[in-house]
UniProtKB/TrEMBL annotation:
Residues 40-331 form the Beta-lactamase-related domain. InterPro entries: Beta-lactam-related, Beta-lactam/transpept-like, Diverse_Enzym_Activities. GO terms for molecular function: hydrolase activity. Signal peptide: none annotated. Keywords: Hydrolase. This is Beta-lactamase-related domain-containing protein. Gene3D superfamilies: DD-peptidase/beta-lactamase superfamily. The keyword Hydrolase applies.
Length: 347
């Protein structure tokens, strides 16, 4: 059974990396106990090679929020006005002629139900388009200013609505710093890196911190300032080996109270461009029993992917974790497709 499973995993990964779009990659699959383990690298990328977590960093931010919730240092019902000056929030959410900027809560940010626009993907000044062409640093205030130029998509907490926007997690990162009186890098160390004894996982803060190249189509680009700007929404560096350790801890209840986590069941489908993905409690859920799999799958993947090809998912039905990286910014759907195929073949 194990040999058959490893063969299938290898075949799926080989097919994914045979694409002209993929120049390097790594896959690591394990069950909770670790008695089943499979890994494979491509193009020189291996288990201990640095990889950009990109939006998987949101799971780190979620971890800190849930740990602080457990400690009673914040509430998901807290209005963001508790943590930000009036001048910072003013004008960021005006929808249908009404201003909702001062009505936003931590929960709205964590569940991606604020309705705020996404400066990474949207507008003529989208950070993604600019980042492909040049390296630049953006402050939190800069991001807020860009949000003000875009239109929100719905009023906060509109029934069955969710919209994926980095600014939600950028704001959560600022809140973590204010509540803990630590930098975000220090908070990640305290709540994640040190408890799990991770040696190669960090949030880059200066030019001396190593940042790996990202591929955009056939070009390897180096964007340290851009990555350092991403912080709570997408700035962490790790390895496949250490990402596996984190994922097991995240879903195993080793970093915060699992019962608390499981009491947060609100999930809504994201915008159409995000495919079959639902969002809630600070992570993605991808059902495998829908049209995209021709109703042939079972259960769901839980975790996160990144726009640069990173992926980290748990598939409870087979108790398998899939983590790794395809390092391709030109097609953010690739890691989602790969993760779904891996799950479908191991059911």
């Amino acid at each position: 059974m194990a040999n058959s499973r490893t063969q299938k995993l290898g075949e799926i990964f080989d097919k994914a990396t045979s694409s002209n779009q993929i120049h390097e990659g790594v896959l690591f699959v394990e069950n909770t106990s670790g008695d089943f383990s499979y890994s494979k690298g491509y193009g020189g990328k291996e288990l201990d090679s640095p990889l950009l977590m990109a939006s998987i960093t949101k799971l780190f931010t979620t971890t800190c929020i849930l740990a602080l919730l457990e400690q009673g240092k914040l509430s998901l019902d807290d209005k963001v006005t508790t943590y930000f000056d009036h001048s910072v929030l003013s004008g960021i959410h005006v929808y249908g002629g009404e201003e909702y900027s001062f009505d936003l809560t931590i929960s709205d940010l964590l569940f991606q139900i604020s309705g705020l626009p996404d400066v990474f993907e949207e507008g003529k000044e989208s950070a993604k388009i600019r980042g492909i062409n040049e390296d630049f640093y953006t402050t939190f205030d800069d991001m807020v200013a860009l949000v003000r130029k875009l239109n929100p998509h719905f009023a906060p907490r509109t029934t069955k609505k969710a919209y994926y926007a980095d600014i939600n997690f950028d704001m959560l990162g600022e809140i973590i710093e204010k509540v803990t009186n630590l930098t975000l890098a220090e908070a990640y160390k305290q709540f994640i890196v040190e408890p799990l004894t991770l040696k190669n996982t960090y949030l880059p803060e200066c030019e001396n911190d190593f940042v790996p190249n990202i591929y955009y189509q056939n070009k390897a680009i180096y964007r340290p300032k851009f990555i350092m700007s991403s912080r709570a929404s997408g700035g962490c560096i790790t390895t496949a080996r250490e990402l596996m350790i984190f994922m097991k801890a995240f879903f195993g209840g080793n970093l915060f109270n699992k019962a608390l986590f499981e009491k947060l069941p609100l999930y809504n489908k994201l915008q159409a461009s995000m495919g079959p993905i639902y969002y809630g409690s600070g992570y993605m859920r991808i059902p495998l029993n829908g049209l995209i799999t021709l109703f042939m799958g079972k259960g769901e993947l839980m975790g996160h992917s990144g726009s640069t090809g990173s992926f980290a998912f748990y598939y409870p039905i087979t108790d398998l974790f899939f983590v790794g990286d395809l390092n391709q910014m030109g097609n953010p759907a690739l890691p989602i497709r790969l993760s779904m195929k891996l799950a479908m073949m191991t059911k």
